Amino acid sequence: MDLSALSLFNLVATHGGFGRASRATGQPKATLSRRVRELEESLGVRLIERGSHSLRLTDEGALLHARTESLLGEIAEVGQDVSAGPGRARGRLRVSAPVFFAHSAMGRVAAGFAAAYPEVQLEVIAEDRFTDLVEDGYDIVIRVNPRRDENLVGRCFLKAPLIVVASASLQKPRQATGKRAAETVPAILRAGMPEPAVWNVTDGRRDLSFHPRGIMWFSTPLLIRDAVRAGAGAALLPRSVLIDELASGELVSWGTAREGHVEAWVLHASRRLVSPKVNAFVNYLCDFYAEASHQPPPHRT
């Protein structure tokens, strides 16, 4: 297969037409059309249905575009890395991060990373939807408690305990130790998750139990945190994303969960050549949190 013709085909497919691809790249429209036709002849299939004013990819063309666009991008990226020198982090780096983590921490992380690697153009997208690295064009995804995926590898950079947290204005129930039933508290819960029967926590001196009575449900931890700050009720959230609120006294901890924790992982595609910029971000993020916790993060293989 002629990789040059394949690259031009992908340009046409990406820009949605020969004219647009020509204007965007400076390649003559006639050259683009001829090279794509040569590629079709060599493969023995039609890749593009040409109309008088528009074009569309055939099923074969759509498959070829989906399977080769990112691969050609990787080859070009490797060439840039080689010409720039071994191990030099440079170029655009797209990262997908959960909304709560992005809002609470990624600003500080990104600022430090940009200072350490000024030749990397970092783009962080905050979203809670499940993203596909290849289809959505990301280099890295950050996921909380991810399921194992043979197509992804990475490192756990944060293992955070869960705490029952409430506004300082919300009175903590008085509770006796022993076999007394759990105290009922107004609770803000995650939408779509099963309602827990009890929150078992420890405050460092004694074990406590609270029965969460759901009063509102939200789809993201960010909304849960804001409702807790407004005094609506208590919630079970990771301590690591509440550091500022706990330090200021705006929120108070009623205890650390005796079971369960949150793991945050930084992941990239296992089949891809790992570029210096990806390695740099993974290492920086893990070092950032390892320094904060003084514990080396585990590796994922």
Tags for this model:
301 residues, alpha/beta, Arc Repressor Mutant, subunit A, nine-stranded mixed beta sheet, D-Maltodextrin-Binding Protein, domain 2, 9 helices, 29% strand, 39% helix
Please give the share of residues in helix.
25-40%
Beta-strand percent range: 25-35%
Radius of gyration: 25 Å
**CATH topology (level 3) name of the largest domain:** D-Maltodextrin-Binding Protein, domain 2
User: Number of helix segments?
Assistant: 9
Counting helices, strands and paired strands, the structural category is: alpha/beta
Tally of distinct domains = 3
Query: What best-fitting shape do the alpha-carbon axes yield?
Result: elongated
* Count of extended strands: 11
Major β-sheet annotation:
9 strands, mixed
Q: How many angstroms does the end-to-end distance come to? A: 34 Å
Describe this structure in words.
This protein is α/β, with parallel strands linked by helices. It folds into 3 domains: 3-84, Arc Repressor Mutant, subunit A, CATH 1.10.10.10; 91-157 and 263-293, D-Maltodextrin-Binding Protein, domain 2 (3-Layer(aba) Sandwich); 161-262, D-Maltodextrin-Binding Protein, domain 2. It is 39% helix and 29% strand. The chain contains 9 helices and 11 strands. The chain has helices at 3-15, 18-25, 29-43, 59-84, 99-116, 133-136, 221-229, 243-248, 276-293, and strands at residues 48-50, 55-57, 91-97, 120-126, 140-144, 152-167, 183-190, 199-202, 207-218, 235-238, 251-269. Strands 3, 4, 5, 6, 7, 8, 9, 10 and 11 form a 9-stranded mixed sheet that branches. The protein has a two-stranded antiparallel ribbon with strand order 1-2. Helix 1 packs across helix 3 (29-43) and helix 2 (18-25) crosses helix 3. The longest helix is centred in the first third of the chain and has 26 residues, at 59-84. The chain is elongated, with a radius of gyration of 25 Å.
